[in-house]
Amino acid sequence: MTDYALTLCDVSCGFPGASRRAGGLYGVSLALLPGEIAGIAGPAGAGKSTVLQIAAGCLQPPRGEARVCGMRATHPAARRLVGYARDGAAFPPSLTVREVLLYYARLHADGNGDRAARRLVREAFDACGLGPAADLLVGALGRADLQRLALAQATLGHRQVLVLDETLSELDAAARRDLRWRIAGLAAAGVAVLMASRDPAALEPLAARVLVLREGRIVRAGPLPELVGERVLEVILDAPPREAPPGFRITEAGIEAPLNGRTVEAALALCRAHRLPVRASRVRVKSLEDVVLDAHDTPLH
User: Fold this and answer.
1) Is residue 163 over pLDDT 60?
2) What pLDDT is attached to residue 23?
């Protein structure tokens, strides 16, 4: 029997008075192994944060269940195994980074006193790259160090599952790369990581598996290499078309379509048959952002 670190089984929930676009979930299931990194992508309101709150044991779904290492996610023992870095996490601005982490570390020190708490803080500094900012006031931190602090707080206490909400969002390229490297290091040590981002590009270099949410439903899911890598033909037109040929969709520059085994010549012949003013064309490899956009444009049944 496979020992999963985290499972969600047919989870559904809604919010009173909310529309279907407002964060509810409908039959969401996933299973995460120790050391695995899975990503959740989708637009704002797709339900990403709701999935993470359920996985972290902060929200009890009315239907379905979430389990951490075989225990209900809301059980106190399970919640001690999960670290949760929520989107927009706030810390007292008048405290230093060290003081914030010491406060939380004392909650995880198992009665072993201040020495154990300080050891946990040192481990968090090393894991998340916060050492240079240890004695800075939280109010003086930039976006990257605030995200490192949220990650460090989530890792305290040797958690077995990390739930990360927009941890890689709104960062410059260097800071995003550094945080990805640190998250990958935690996973290499056996920590299961479930992370969500409204920016698919943030997940693509890191997640081994991705779920695409739309209006609370999983519309695409699978290992990343199976979702991306397909060849896409981009066609630049002199004038926008009234409607796209079968299999194509309209873009800002013209139209595009997955080749799906077709040759470029066959796809361009279809454009000519529709008398489209083709200026240029190119073939590119589909990205995770393309997968999310395809899921967004496909009608829900």
Assistant:
1) yes
2) 59
Q: How far apart are CA 121 and CA 134, in angstroms?
A: 10
Residue 7 and residue 266: Cα distance in Å, rounded? 45
Name the phi and psi angles at 15, rounded to 5: -125, 135
Rounded Cα gap, residues 65 and 4, in angstroms: 14
Which conformational region is residue 9 in: left (phi greater than 0), alpha (psi within -120 to 50 degrees), or beta? beta
Angular region, 88: left φ>0, alpha ψ -120 to 50, beta rest: left
Pick the closest to residue 206 from 182, 190, 227 (CA basis).
Answer: 182
Written as six digits, the tokens of 76 are 């106190």
Enter the tokens of residue 21: 């676009």
Domain 6-227, CATH number (from 3.40.50.10860, 3.40.50.300, 3.30.450.20, 3.40.50.1220): 3.40.50.300
Task: pLDDT band for 151, please (50, 70, 90 cuts).
Answer: very high
Structural domain spans, the chain? 6-227, 231-285
